[in-house]
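Title: Prediction job returns without error message
Component: structure pipeline
Severity: low
Priority: P3
Assignee: unassigned

Description:
Job completed but the reporter wants confirmation the result is attached to the right record. Sequence as submitted:
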Amino acid sequence: MKKSLFLLLLVANVAFGQKGIQFSASPIEKVFQDARRTGKPVFVEIFSPTCHTCQSFIPTLADSRVGAFYNSKFISTKLDINQPATRAFLDSRRLFVPSLPLFLYFDPQQNLIHFAMSNNSTDEVIRHGTNALNPQARSQTMKSRYQQGDRAANFLIDYAMYSRVTKDTLASIAAMNDYAKQQPTASYANQTNWLALQKLVLDYENPMFQYMMGHMDAYRKAYGAKEAQDVAENILMSSLFSGRGAKFSIDKIMQIRQGLAKIGIDPKVAANRTLLPEVNAYFNARQTAKAVERMDNQVNSNKLTVPEYIYIARLFNRFSPDGKDVPTVTKWINQGLALNPGAKEQAELRAELAKASRRAK
């Protein structure tokens, strides 16, 4: 019995002696100060306490082999995505978190050198750290590899995700367009490409998405009606409200509006979503009369509040290319005044009325 107890205590001591990654609890700025002092890169796990996948990684990150590697090579920390300090840090580095957990690797000067969305195994976690240490393998080289002509399918997927993380939307779109052109049409709806549509495609003109729009029933059957609609809706809206979406022609915006209706969005809701992009597109094309007509139809078919009347009057006063809209803008302002707004809102409406009058002259 004494021998069994001794063995049990020995096993317990060995277990407790095994250390995984030693995550620093210091603020992120202090972590980078330590990195500059030691010359080590920084490993950051972005996680959430309520993320089940994140929780499943805890034993892997506590593994002694993982700990031995990371503790010797990196200074490590964990950042809760729900904390304002974490969001401020990510914003300061212009980084987007597409899913959790996300592994980020930085040099001591806070430059992102590598990222990983890892499988949950000790070998994989160590492999990502090894790649982060290798200047030829880290994510930081992906843009130059793409520019030099690398078009391997797996590389394009990785590069598109890296571009999403670094908020390089145009690079992500280009990578996924190249990827889609490589795929046989018959494979567009397979599991891998479905995941690509869910996570990576941001452009409604991507060939895989165009195929999806023409075969929605097949996607609903294969992946579920709600899931298929959500993915299609996300791609359409991502296209519309991207930086390049602000330069879309009215024809492209109408294609997106029709696409929203096609996937099951109520046509009136779809029209509401594309209202401002349509009006701005008419402004850009110097088609004031059409911008007025589009907004006036919206006003006439909805019961607007005073803040909404203020908003549309301000929109036209600031961005309309000429004064042809002034009679209609004046009408909207008077409709807002007829609602007996408070003193502040009444003053704002009258200020817009004065601007409209000056524009008319």
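Comment from assignee: result matches the submitted record. Residues 142 and 159 are 6 Å apart (CA to CA).
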